[in-house]
Specification:
Strand content: under 5%
Number of strands: 0
Mean pLDDT: 79
Helix content: 55-70%
Low-confidence stretches: 95-100
Oligomer: single chain
Shape: rod-shaped
Distance between the termini: 94 Å
Largest sheet: none
Length: about 120
């Protein structure tokens, strides 16, 4: 029995549990830092996208004005020809965005259930 008592006194699971706990805290901290960095990158990208959209709208307005001026101004006409400025229709979504389906009762060929039909 002396060996059993010596073993129970010399071994404690506290150290192993504590080590696992510290490793989990370190992993969680590392992931939290990575998420904060990703959030900052996303916010920066969204700001740049908004600025890009503003620049795109401004260039479209300038191009329209320049094309209108080209009808009366030879310099404007030369700029339009040099830079090959032309207005085209914006690209449509095509098949990417589908029209929502009509509700069954609203369609022309739909039949109401027998319980709701008037006699």
């Amino acid at each position: 029995m002396n060996d059993k008592q010596a073993f129970s006194r010399s071994y404690s699971p506290f150290g192993a549990v504590w080590a696992v706990f510290l490793v989990l805290i370190a992993i969680h901290g590392w992931q939290s830092v990575a998420l904060v960095q990703q959030k900052k990158q996303l916010q920066t990208a969204l700001k740049e996208a908004a600025n890009g959209q503003l620049v795109n709208e401004t260039m479209l307005k300038v191009s329209r004005d320049l094309i209108q001026m080209a009808a009366v101004s030879p310099r404007a006409r030369q700029i339009v020809e040099d830079f090959k400025i032309q207005l085209t229709a914006p690209p449509s979504a095509g098949g990417l965005v589908s029209k929502p389906a009509e509700p069954a009762a609203a369609s022309k060929n739909a039949r109401l259930p027998a319980a709701t039909q008037k006699k």
